[in-house]
Write a structure and sequence with these properties.
The mean pLDDT is 95. The protein is 43% helix and 19% strand. α4 packs across α11, α5 crosses α6 and α8 runs parallel beside α9. The chain has 11 helices and 12 strands. It folds into 2 domains: 158 residues, Nucleotidyltransferase, domain 5, CATH 3.30.420; 173 residues, 2-Layer Sandwich (Nucleotidyltransferase, domain 5), CATH 3.30.420.40. It is of the alpha/beta class. It is globular and about 70 Å long. The protein binds 5'-O-[(R)-(carboxyoxy)(hydroxy)phosphoryl]adenosine and zinc ion.
Amino acid sequence: MVTVLAIETSCDETAVAVVSDRQILSNIITSQIKIHAEFGGVVPEIAARNHLETINFAIAQAYQDSGLDWHQIDGIAVTAAPGLIGSLMIGMTAAKTLTLIHRKPLIGVHHLEGHIFSAFLADPTLEPPFLCLLVSGGHSSLILMQDYGKYQILGKTRDDAAGEAFDKVARLLGLGYPGGPAIEKVAKGGNPKAFKFPQGVIPNFPYDSSFSGLKTSVLRQTEKCQAQKFTQEIPVADIAASFQETVALALSTRAIKCALEYNLQTIVAVGGVAANSALRSHLTKLVQAHNLRLVFPPLILCTDNAAMIGCAGAMHLERGEISDLSLRSLSRMDISDSHNLYKSTS
Ligand code: KG4
Ligand code: ZN
């Protein structure tokens, strides 16, 4: 059994967890959502300052909650890429400091690999190969996990990612930040069939996603409604529900088509947008119709957390894949290049 303390600070959550293989021993998530909400989105400089203020408390709490002693912790895992550079560097510095003080190996983890590993926490019997629908603030990807550490991107984000589209549409409807949960709440009172929006299909690239056209179409519809506002109310709930329905249908049909073409029996759906109830319900129905297996992490593991980073880190440490103190935070990195984070075998 491999136990790691993991740190995740790639965006606006200061998160620290202790994980033993696929079991969570502690999981601290300090969200900065309220701080960024007044700006309508994450302000990188403010995010980095807040990580700095919170990280020591989060480490102490996660360590205490785990009930373990430092000698029972085998390594320190940290999100190395991709993300906001100032935020990543706070977590990286904290992780390197812990490795020096406690003489533990350092394991850099790719943030998207972390999201994929939230599925292993949800279902510890899960084994690759499987198809992963990874939908977050920065990504709407279909990734084939062939084996541990081996990823092939089958579909990628062309422009706005799914979460980004939720955030932008929420802003234009005046629903606040973060957009996903705000749209989901308002959509409950709306008609998902009220408006027909484009699903962002790209000819010859059936698994890529493009949501900027959808966002523009929602904007045009809202402007049209605004122009008529003296005769009728703007149907915010109907627009939100129709937008959410379009994204949920686009992503779930793409994922099923891809799994069938590549002959994959299991689909896992991870990342912040995988918390969305419309997406969960469409995907569940389609998976049942095609007799496939579906793994969803619980909502708390869909959005950013350190337990998923710890689960991926424990896997790498067990395989002898460790980083060294030259490990750098990088704002961009493809998941298929994540093997570059490891220098040596222990
Ligand atoms: O995975 P995540 O926490 O951070 C990134 O790595 O990007 O995802 C954040 C994104 C935001 O765009 C947020 O609006 C979206 O996930 N999100 C949702 C829901 N909860 C969070 N989107 C749709 N429905 C939700 N319930
Ligand atoms: Zn994330």
